[in-house]
Write a structure and sequence with these properties.
single chain, alpha+beta, Alpha-Beta Plaits, eight-stranded mixed beta sheet, three-stranded antiparallel beta sheet, protein biosynthesis, PrfB
Length: 342
């Protein structure tokens, strides 16, 4: 790669040159992180060995603490290494749709919408609400987030699928346990390097009035835009702006992104990789269950990964679930095992 960068003709093709420079930067960053980890590992092991040899518990404890910190860093780098797909580095759109079940499912969709916004904030990503359609009584029928940040799509892509909630319903006067479903769909933002052609004659464009949470952000004119791509059946909507022109431009970008995600999915299926579930929102199709009563458990049905603290998960603690799913998608098996330090 260095030989190509040193080629005086490199910048004759600016787009290709920028791609090569980005690749080199990413490789240098990963190699630098690995070398730093190896150096700090040697230092920590030396501290432990020195403490054991001299009977110095303080030095030994310092070395063990350093090893534990390195374990956490190694796990983080392990996950970063899995984010090498074609669009993993891109920003992401994340849609949430309520399933059958009326108010219960709409409330569950609202909870998921908040969960992913909180997760993105924890990752220091920028979050924008693109569309919200309120439920008839509470919650959301649908909502779309734009998550901006390096590897936003790579992190979030395995969340696509049906999510199931079991709890005592706050809407049931008899305090009975209810099961609700909502679906999540994640697809990458298409940047200028990716050329997706859409024939406008294949699309139906509808305008409508926004129906968000209320207040100054709800439009009083029909400025929201919905685009239906007839050949694929894909539907996108945007009501983030008061300007119909801006909403239309965003909706076209979302449609291009959805079509690109569909192409990535086709390639992944051809390679026999595990594709995200995009099926009916109901029993038998869920990828993850969140149980709040009669016990507390979140379980990913694809990987078997669990958490006994659903409140933390619903507040955005999703990295462990994402790491397990990302590892499963890599051909040839699961994550590299790193032994805990006793």
């Amino acid at each position: 790669m260095n030989a190509r960068i040193e080629d005086p003709n490199l910048w004759n093709d600016a787009e290709d040159a920028q791609k090569i420079m980005r690749e080199r930067s990413e490789l240098e960053e990963r190699l630098g992180a690995q070398k730093k980890l190896e150096s700090e590992l040697d230092d920590a092991l030396t501290l432990v060995e020195l403490g054991e040899a001299e009977g110095d518990e303080a030095t030994e404890s310092e070395g063990v603490a350093a090893l534990k910190a390195l374990l956490a860093e190694a796990k983080r780098l392990q996950l970063e290494a899995l984010l090498s797909g074609e669009a993993d580095a891109n920003d992401a759109y994340l849609e949430v749709h309520s399933g059958a079940g009326g108010t219960e499912s709409c409330d569950w969709a609202r909870m998921l919408f908040r969960m992913y916004a909180r997760w993105a904030e924890r990752k220091k990503f920028k979050v924008e609400i693109i569309e919200e359609t309120a439920g008839d009584e509470a919650g959301l029928k649908s909502g779309t987030l734009l998550i901006k940040g390096h590897n936003a799509y790579g992190w979030a892509k395995t969340e696509s699928g049906v999510h199931r909630l079991v709890r005592i319903s706050p809407f049931d006067s008899n305090a009975r346990r209810h099961t609700s479903f909502a679906s999540v769909w994640v697809y990458p933002v298409v940047d200028d390097r990716i050329d997706i052609e859409v024939n406008e004659s294949d699309c139906r464009i509808d305008t409508y009035r926004s129906s968000g949470a209320g207040g100054q952000h709800v439009n009083t004119t029909d400025s929201a835009i919905r685009i239906t791509h007839i050949p694929s059946g894909i539907v996108v909507a945007c009501q983030a702006e008061r300007s119909q022109h801006k909403n239309r431009a965003t909706a076209w970008n979302m449609l291009r992104a959805r079509l690109y995600e569909k192409e990535l999915e086709r390639r992944e299926a051809e390679a026999n990789a595990v594709a995200a579930a995009k099926t009916d929102i109901g029993w038998g199709h869920q990828i993850r269950s969140y149980v709040l009563q009669p016990y507390q458990l979140v379980k990913d049905l694809r990987t078997g990964h669990t958490s006994g603290t659903p409140d933390e998960v619903l507040d955005g603690e999703l990295d462990d679930f994402m790491q397990a799913s990302l590892a499963q998608r890599v051909e040839g098996g699961g994550p590299v095992q790193v032994e805990d330090v006793e």
